[in-house]
Batch of 4 targets.
Target 1
Amino acid sequence: MISPVALVASGTYAVPAMGELPSGNVTFLFTDVEGSTQLLERDSAGMAGLLARHHEILREAVEHHDGQVFETFGDAVCAAFSRPSDAVAAALAGQQALLAERWPEPGPIRVRMGVHTGEVELGEGHYIGAPLFRVARLMAIGHGGQVLLSTASAALVRGSLPPGTGLKDMGSHRLKDLAEAEGVFQLAQSGLPEDFPALRSLESLPNNLPAQLTSFVGREKDLAEIKRLLGASRLLTITGSGGSGKTRLALQAAADVLDHFPDGAWLADMGPLTEGQLVPQTVATALGLHEEPGQPIQSTVLHWLSGKRLLLVVDNCEHLVDACARLAEAILRSCPHVQVLATSRAALAIGGETTWRIPSLGLADPDHL
């Protein structure tokens, strides 16, 4: 199903008439249904009716608390509020109504929610601004029945929460945009579930992906294509000239698909190497493996990977193409559930490889710099 994260990336946030929606400093409530794809596969006809009822419940909760639903698509509901306290009240009312509903098969419907406040613009029939990305990412780390608030929203509502309602500090979490971490708070109220699994942030999933210094903006369509190709190929090589953004794009893609790999996503950077024989050792170091006496390090790597379901990001292969290609080919042959995402100025040129050349990044719109 289409999620708010995908909607943000596609730029499809068409909104109603400008006078009906808040602008400037806006609080957003984003929601989606946990496990909607599996429910749809079980009973597509029944799920259609459940989604329609789910939309009714959430729209009523939003509008009753002076909010505006500006997008519903698939299982996603996106609403805007002038006051953060109204967004929180709508989230609570929505969760209470969803919990009280008697859902037929293939229900029940469990909805995760994110609330974030930030400054946006209304232009050309769309909301524009970084808060859209942050609230979508915040919502995506939650679980069905859970309401998560950003630090900004929590600070604004802390003194005006409804009776019996509190905020549980969930700590600081890196969201999948790989930029600065976000303080996360869970909305808690008697009668609603409070115990959930660990948040699906980068901290809770095995990986060594580095935090990035900038948010990921401008290549959303490229990112979507890379993720599509990753779903169809066990070896995907991003090619392009030096400085074209191959590494940044690969890291973002790896972060976005991280929860599809139970054993994580791991980065091995070949950039500092000068000798091809060091490629297996670099991968072993990235995976936390140590050389075993009398055992070639590549054999150790392959044996360990053989039972794993993970994504291996092999970065900057261009000066060691042959060595990287040999290791990638061995992984494809010996480790059936491992996928490799490589970056290089030239393809690895081995069987099973899919290559994607990074296009030039267009100039930014000067009105929105």
Target 2
Amino acid sequence: MRSTRAAGLALAAALLVTLGAAGPARADGAFPDSLSVLVPADRPQYIGLATNFGLISSSDAGASWTWVCEGPITNCSTLYSVSAPPADRLFAVSADSLVYSDDDACGWEVAGGSAVAGGVVDAFPLAQTSARVLAVVSPNGVGPQTTYTVVSSSDGGVTFDAVLYTAAAGDVVTGVEAARGDANRIYVTIAHGSRFTPMLAVSADGGATWRTIDLAPQLDQAGIRLIAVDRTNPVRVFLRVTRTEAESLGVFDSTNDTLTTPLVFPGGLMTSFVQTAEGPLIAAGRLNIASSVQRSLDGGATWQAVAGAPHLRALSERDGTIYGATDDAADGFALATSRDLGLTFRPLMSYADVGAIAACVRAECQETCKNEVALGLWPAAVCTATEAKPRPKSSGCAVAASPPVSFVSFGVEGALVLVVWRVRRRRRVR
């Protein structure tokens, strides 16, 4: 069987072919696509849609939309996330760096400390407090980092001052996440050794000690990535399992180290997942170019297909509303909502609904805006329009006492393309 990395590259290549059939190419070679949905729990009017050409957002519940293009330090950004309230600090993994913004993407800063020792490949703001952020740092051939590490920040991601986990030489760490119900329970996914054996490292004491579980007896040489820790059961974690022939949802129980794969997308990709506050689970994938959306009402044991669902890229939930990033070219809209726990989705926004560049970056985004107009993404008036409503400023990075109630999924496209980019970059710098 091919290695995990080879399988990942094959899937990425297949993904790019699929996207190529969906719409026009951008000047940088990427097809306009959505990556994730951002819905901070304490800002009910705010909706953010992270894309591979910047951040689209609304501060009036979708009545109007503005756009912020990528800049020098946010180039190729993926894995967008938001910290716990009231800070609502925005994070993104950009090229080799972790970057953050306190003003809805108008201005960005690069995280410091041990996060700059190599390349950041994953980041996770804890649900319990906006002060703590976890990140995975990899060797990138530029910084002094020689092995993968998991590092922690206690100042909201400004600096990372503690190393919680150091991988063995040759191991690849693909993700980190802490449980919503127990901040001390941390999970790390690993591709071990030259065969990229799937392994899971678990800490129950905030990273002071770790226990490593070899998943090869159950998964052989499949690759794994973290999706989410169960929001009500900290010992249960959802994994994305990647094989050459299929992707599947894995459910791991750390009380007895058992792993099941109750949902498989044969010959396809798993693109998104959300565990709703009401209980049902929703998972989406792609079979060739067709969409596949599944619901589970029994914690993931059994699944039922959702008819007529859009091509979901990512899923989030806030106050009972599910937000889905969709395929603007295939579906005719880029963002949809469901108010019946994923049974039906209604269009909310398409790229063409963007009305203006955010005033704070209007000058900087002009050339990129013209490129998007040339691709037919939106009308030329967007580039010169005045923002319909001023963007409220963030209150800064304060510590939140209570966790948010929105639950955010991954977006598969950005993660896979990022793997390809990093492999190529290492070849250049070495």
Target 3
Amino acid sequence: MKLTTTLLILSAVSLFTSLAAFGEEVNRGVTIPIQLPFDGSEPKTYRVTLAITAPDNPDWIVSTFVSGAVRTVTEENRGRFTETWDGLDDNFMPVPPGEYGVKGIFMPTEIWAPDGKPHTLRPKILSGPSNLSPRHGRGEDKLITGDQVAPGLGDVAVGPDGVAVFYWKFLENALNPYRLDLSQPLGPEQLLGGFGSGGTGGGDYITTDGQTIWAVAPTDAVALQTQMNGSVFLYPPFLYRADQKPFGSDHMIRRNVTLTEGRVTGLAAYRPNEEGPALLFVAERGKLEIVGKHPHGKLDLYGESPDERVNVLRVLNGNTAEEISRVPVVEPTALVATNQSLHLLEKREDDWAVRSTPLPQDGNLDPAAWSKPVSLPGLKDPRDLAVDSAGRLFVADP
């Protein structure tokens, strides 16, 4: 909510001469009246923030002289208050004589039980992830918990049913990933719970067809402060199912998973029909190779080769991890399946481009069915790709 923007006129005689000559005037400052909503009902409390702005640019803040101040509207004051500006900017220096604007915002508050103080923002879903978050089994099961060892979310995927899968890069002692129903009103009831991480902690890529969830572990960030030849893993990445059903015959932290030959840079899923298995599309870039030993143990450290490339797009049976087909690609960067098409972002020489192909019903990709690459000039280091229902491309480029 915005307060009405007004114009404050400061003259050298009325303000600054008085400030220089009379100490009491300095303390008094400039008084500014404001009006908060008043409807004659029960008292209402707000937090108010006011700022002095440049006269020729209301977006240029000269001084934020009231910040989150608590003001309670009653029958007696009828929402009228007077605030004081000391004539100083945000660096506590006197401003030059002249005309200045005043603008502000206010928000309703409520008293929080933990501290008994008024607050303006209340989270709909309490999350951390943090070891200080409330624990399960205490009537607070609609929570996301755990120690966030690695920074932030690794990936978010949304199924055709509107259920989103949130995958953290690494949550210690927690479930991961979590499912949220985006079709429900914003609130704790959206949270549908999580899956046991099975020791994987988390990763950077996840996908779902609305029934099954596939993910890659570990994440680039989980290197235990070890840096060798760029990104380093404690163990080679592998594909697994969040429901912990077998997905391949390799054994890592989890048993019955699928190792990849190259570093995964994209996952996508598609279910051609309800009866048959889903298809899992996996984009792999540089070959994974051993780059050393972990200094505190005997584990091999794996990293992406800077020279030897895999550069392949594979199609796997979503139930068994059996490879159905593969096609060569050019430095894959991101992958998304939507609108009956598979879209691939690739780095081509000094530029990035997107091309697409119809989603195969049997999992067999046709190299000749790909569209011509659409160049996306100006990108620096794109990380992800999305396509909306109208076919518009969205590229995340930090």
Target 4
Amino acid sequence: MKLKNNRLLYALIAVLTLGIVGGLSPLTAQEDDEDVFTLSPFTIDEQENVGYLARSSLAGTRLKTPLRDIAATISVVTEEFMDDTGSTDLQELLVYTANTEVLGIGGNFANPDESRSVGGVLDAQFTRPTQNTRVRGLAAADLTRNYFPTIVAMDSYNTSRVVINRGANSILFGLGSPAGIINNQIIAPVFENHGEVSFQYGSYDSHRTEFDVEKVLIEDKLSIRVAALNEEQFYQQKPAFEHDSRITIAGEWRPYENTIVRATYENGSITANRPRSIPPQDMVSRWFDVSPLGIAKPTHNGHEAFQLFLRETPTVKGS
């Protein structure tokens, strides 16, 4: 009786299994008939960003990888986040991200150093403010554009996202800063006709104008996108100012199904006399100070200098 019941149970399981397989077969055949689209593993589409959320990145492996699968500390800043916070460059953006610092009038650390005040940190605040960063409290991060090293200052007018990869990134660049890498992704055509113009007005008559226009020349084949910026910043401290004027042209051509040709060109100029965020240092009192910590007053005695020159100059005697 027990054996008969087991046979009935096995027969019932077999019938149910055949029914499930038979029900799935038409669905599998239908999926095979549909077109399969393979996305490029080397590019990130702007449309993948949803608000402040970014799902994937090229950081870590140079291949398009979901952020949850990357074993690194990565922060992805989307275009919408930059718009909502009013961040247009690294000086304004890094104060919102985790474990990052930046010099400058709007930064969050000063790092004054008298020994390097000439041609050093204090001087670099005015000539290269976006390159004076500190990540993880270690050092300045390497700056890249589309994961290529750059010295061009980042600006949001032609940036679709900013990726902050904290930590060593030798897998990407061979030898990189132990602090990490800050990459800004340049805008690319999305093959949709669109146009956008924005104008901002700030304190002390500061103003910023930018526009972004794209024109599809050949549907799904050729598109050109142009973005331009004109910004003039003024400060309470006179005569400090900064004038930034740039234009970016990005084109994409898809001649064949598996072939994509991209080109990006940018031209611009930055003229600035940036404000001093550190109070002036007193270098005069030390000159009059006669204590061991002071600096001896420099004096010049022409006669003594000439006698010293004669004593130290070797004499060559001829035969």
